[in-house]
Structures are given as structure tokens and as C-alpha cells.
């Protein structure tokens, strides 16, 4: 069952990430229509900077592992620009937990929080965004609805961040979820990757 869910999720992820802004609004409206209680507002859609070296350089990534990784396990990726310049780094989803959103009357709403880390090791600098992360529900649906961080001090940067070799960035990302449906996978699908890397969230 998990293998089938993973395959379906990979096919849906790219389209879902591309429509992140409109998807956030649609899901938010659905939640608000189901309850009269106030709901948290999703963060604004995050768009890449026009100075992004990944876009200008045509950055592509080698394929991630076929099987989902365990939480805490790092994907040691390699990248190549259009001009042939190479780079390496690591990405990991470190942990997952469900939190109660602040000041919300609906007892079923939750924040599905993942802690992630991205490092640039050698070569070409990379630009990282929260928008490349998503969660996969048991049904295979992709959740890209990211919330304003309850604690900005521990949050993954919400704006594009350029990492040079030897630099890392780490923090939490909160997705709007419900108590009764815990996600089964966390995924990272940057521009230029042939498919997203995935991490299993234990049930």
C-alpha cells in the first residue's frame, strides 16, 4: 500500500508545487466552509527570486533514491548547471510532529510540522525555498498548505536563501492538517530534480 501511495504521490507533486498559491487558497476555503470556527491563514505564496542561480544556470539534480528514506537520513545529492558546473550537498527531513494551532476553536485542526535541513557541500551555490517541501496524505493527496511559523526563531526560512559551499540552513515548516489524518511521507522536489526525494513518516 505504501509503495502505491509513493508512486501516486510522485506523479502529483510537481503539479501541486507549481500551483502552490492557488492550492493554499482552495484548501483554506474548504476548511473554513466545514466549520464556523476561525482558522489559521496560510502564508503567502513563495515565488523564486529573479536572481536565483538555479533558474539562470539551469540547475539539474541527479535522481534521489527510489525508496523513501527514514526521518533523519540525508539525501546526498549532486547537481549540474547548464554550463557543466557541478555541486553537491545534502537534504534531510529530520523529524515530524503534530501540534495544536494557536488560538483555534476547531479541535480537529492541527499543524503537521517537519524539521528539515539543507546543506551545500561543494561547487555551485544553491537557492533553497520552503515551497519545495510537501506532505503526502494516506490517500496520496499532496499537502502544500504552509502556515505562518508559530515561532520564527526556529522556522525554516520563508524567503529564498542562497547557500554557498559549507553553509546549511535548518528549521521547521508547518502545514495545515487535521488530527485524524497524519501524513505518510514528507517530500522535497526542487526545480531540476527528475523526481522528489521522500521520507517515511511512521504511523
Automatic annotation (TrEMBL):
Residues 31-52 have a biased composition (Polar residues). It comes from the Bacteria. Keywords: Signal. Residues 1-18 form the signal peptide. Residues 31-65 are annotated as: Disordered. This is Lipoprotein. It comes from Streptomyces laculatispora.
Amino acid at each position: 500500500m505504501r509503495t502505491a501511495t509513493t508512486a501516486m504521490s510522485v506523479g502529483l507533486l510537481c503539479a501541486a508545487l507549481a500551483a502552490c498559491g492557488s492550492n493554499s487558497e482552495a484548501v483554506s476555503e474548504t476548511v473554513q466552509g466545514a466549520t464556523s470556527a476561525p482558522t489559521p491563514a496560510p502564508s503567502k505564496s513563495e515565488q523564486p527570486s529573479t536572481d536565483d542561480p538555479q533558474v539562470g544556470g539551469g540547475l539539474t539534480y541527479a535522481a534521489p533514491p527510489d525508496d523513501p528514506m527514514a526521518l533523519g537520513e540525508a539525501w546526498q545529492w549532486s547537481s549540474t548547471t547548464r554550463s557543466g558546473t557541478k555541486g553537491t550537498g545534502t537534504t534531510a527531513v529530520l523529524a515530524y510532529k503534530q501540534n495544536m494551532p494557536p488560538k483555534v476553536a476547531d479541535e480537529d485542526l492541527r499543524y503537521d510540522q517537519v524539521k528539515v535541513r539543507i546543506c551545500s557541500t561543494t561547487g555551485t551555490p544553491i537557492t533553497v525555498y520552503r515551497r519545495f517541501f510537501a506532505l503526502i496524505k494516506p490517500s496520496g493527496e499532496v499537502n502544500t498548505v504552509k502556515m505562518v511559523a508559530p515561532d520564527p526563531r526556529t522556522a525554516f526560512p520563508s524567503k529564498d536563501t542562497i547557500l554557498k559551499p559549507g553553509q546549511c540552513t535548518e528549521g521547521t515548516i508547518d502545514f495545515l492538517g487535521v488530527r485524524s489524518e497524519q501524513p505518510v511521507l514528507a517530500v522535497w522536489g526542487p526545480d531540476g530534480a527528475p523526481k522528489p526525494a521522500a521520507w517515511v513518516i511512521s504511523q
